[in-house]
Design brief:
The protein is an alpha+beta fold and about 425 residues long. The chain is about 40% helix and about 20% strand. Helix 1 packs across helix 13 and helix 3 crosses helix 13.
Length: about 425
C-alpha cells in the first residue's frame, strides 16, 4: 500500500462515495444481491487502479495482491478483468447516467471546499467545452464512426469547470458539439451566468451553439475559423485608421509577425441578432497579404486585442485535456461495447477529479501546476505498512521529514476517527 491510496480513500470517505454508490440501484444489476461483488467494490476498484498508475481493467484484479489495501478498505477481494467488463456492460446507460450524476456532485462538493482564488480567474469561474476524437482500430467498437479525418473514431465531448472535467459524453464522431446544450444544462448550477466565462473551439461557433452559450454565460469567447469568407471581406474593407496600432509577436515557427486588431459585427446563420467578433490581421515579412483570425465573443467592452489575449488562456484547458488522455491512457477504450466504455470514461473522469481535488484543496500553491502523472508518482513514493494490533489497524507511514507535517494535518482533517501517534 502507498500513501496515495490512503489519501484517495480519505477524499472518497469525506465525499461519501461508497454511500452514494450503494444507494444507487442503477449500479447494481445483480438479480441476487447475495452473490457477486457489491457495486461499490467495482467503482472503488477502478478508481483506485487509475489513481495508482494503472491504465487497464486488469489493474483492478491486481489490487487483490495488496493485502494492506484490502485490510484498510475492508474488501476481501477485487474482481477480475472479465467481471469488471461484465459489470460495466450490465449497468448500461442508466448506470452511466448515475455515475455522471455522482461525478457532478463530487465537483460541486470539491468547489465548495476549495478557496475561490485557486480556481477563479479575475473573479470568474472559467469553463471550457471541447471534443476529442479517440481513434479506434477494427470495426468491433460499437458507436465508432468515420471522423472528419477519415479515421474510425469515438468522440468524447467534455465540459470543464475550473480544473475539473465535470461531465462528458462518449459517442460517435459526428457533430462535435451535439452535446453542448445538454452538458451546459446539466451542469449550469456550478456557476452563476454573471460569474462564469466559457471558452470553446470553432466546432461550437454555429449560430445555434452561440445562442445556447449566451443563455448560460454573460461572458464567453469562441474560436471562429469556419465560414470566414464574409468576415474576411468585411475586414478587408476596413480603412487603415480603423485598425489598432501594430504590435509584434512570435509566430509558431519563431517568425516575427506584425499584428493589428479591430471589432467586427456579423449575423451568422441561426442567430436573430448580430454577433460581436474580435478580428486580428497579421503577416510576416515573407507574406504578401494579410491573414485573418476571428473570435466570436460576448465582450462589448475592452479591446479586441484583450479578447485574443484572454482567449489564449484556453490553452491551459487544452493542456489539461491532453495530459488526462495521456496520463490515464484514455486514447484506448477498453471495451467493444459502447455503454461499457461510457461507464469506464465516466469513472476515469471521477478518478481524475479526485486527484485534482486532492491537489486543489489540500496541497500548497507551489504544487498546483503538477500534472496527474506527477502527482500519482509522488504519492506512490510514500510507502504505508498496515499492522493489526489489539483489535486496531495501524497504518505506518514512511515519510521524508519535510512531508510529516502535511500528512499529519491531512489525516487529522479527513480521517478524524484515526488516532495519530508520535513519529519514531
Amino acid at each position: 500500500m502507498h500513501g496515495g491510496q490512503l489519501a484517495v480513500a480519505a477524499v472518497m470517505e469525506r465525499f461519501g462515495l461508497k454511500r452514494r454508490v450503494k444507494r444507487c440501484a442503477a449500479l447494481d444489476p445483480r438479480k441476487d444481491t447475495h452473490k457477486g461483488y457489491d457495486p461499490e467494490v467495482y467503482v472503488t476498484g477502478i478508481v483506485y487502479a487509475l489513481t495508482s498508475g494503472g491504465c487497464t481493467l486488469s489493474e483492478v484484479e491486481k489490487l487483490s495482491e495488496d493485502e494492506a489495501l484490502k485490510a484498510c478498505l475492508g474488501v476481501k477481494r477485487f474482481p477480475d478483468e472479465s467481471s469488471v467488463g461484465e459489470w460495466m456492460r450490465n449497468v448500461g446507460e442508466t448506470g452511466v447516467e448515475a455515475i455522471r450524476r455522482i461525478g457532478r456532485d463530487f465537483v460541486e462538493w470539491a468547489l465548495a471546499q476549495a478557496e475561490g482564488p485557486r480556481y477563479r480567474h479575475a473573479g470568474q469561474v472559467e469553463c471550457f467545452f471541447d471534443d476529442t476524437q479517440i481513434e479506434v482500430h477494427g470495426r468491433t467498437f460499437e458507436g465508432a464512426t468515420v471522423n472528419y479525418e477519415g479515421n474510425l473514431a469515438l468522440g468524447w465531448q467534455t465540459l470543464w469547470v475550473g480544473p475539473f472535467l465535470v461531465d462528458g459524453v462518449l459517442g460517435g464522431a459526428g457533430d462535435v458539439s451535439s452535446q453542448l446544450d445538454d452538458l451546459l444544462s446539466a451542469n449550469g448550477h456550478l456557476w452563476k451566468p454573471s460569474e462564469g466565462y466559457l471558452y470553446a473551439d470553432s466546432g461550437s461557433s454555429a449560430g445555434s451553439y452561440l445562442k445556447a452559450i449566451g443563455k448560460r454565460f454573460d461572458q464567453w469567447s469562441v474560436s471562429y475559423n469556419k465560414w470566414t469568407e464574409p468576415l474576411e471581406r468585411l475586414s478587408e474593407g476596413f480603412p487603415e485608421g480603423y485598425w489598432s496600432p501594430v504590435v509584434e509577436r512570435r509566430g509558431r515557427k519563431g517568425e516575427t509577425l506584425r499584428e493589428q486588431y479591430a471589432w467586427l459585427r456579423h449575423q451568422p446563420e441561426g442567430m436573430e441578432t448580430p454577433v460581436q467578433y474580435a478580428v486580428a490581421r497579421y503577416r510576416s515579412d515573407e507574406d504578401l497579404f494579410w491573414r485573418y483570425s476571428f473570435i466570436a465573443t460576448s465582450s462589448a467592452q475592452g479591446t479586441p486585442q484583450g479578447v485574443f489575449e484572454r482567449h489564449r488562456l484556453k490553452g491551459d484547458f487544452e493542456r489539461r485535456f491532453s495530459e488526462l488522455l495521456s496520463d490515464l491512457d484514455l486514447h484506448h477504450p477498453p471495451c467493444a461495447n459502447l455503454a461499457a466504455n461510457r461507464v469506464y470514461y465516466a469513472l476515469a473522469t471521477l478518478a481524475y477529479n479526485i486527484l485534482q481535488a486532492l491537489k486543489l484543496i489540500w496541497m500548497s500553491a507551489d504544487e498546483q501546476s503538477h500534472r496527474v502523472r506527477t502527482l500519482v508518482h509522488r504519492l506512490l513514493l510514500i510507502p504505508v505498512e498496515i499492522k493489526r494490533h489489539a483489535r486496531q489497524v495501524l497504518a505506518c507511514f514512511y515519510l521524508p521529514e519535510h512531508a510529516e507535517s502535511w500528512w499529519r494535518q491531512f489525516i487529522a482533517l479527513l480521517l478524524p476517527r484515526c488516532h495519530l501517534m508520535p513519529s519514531g
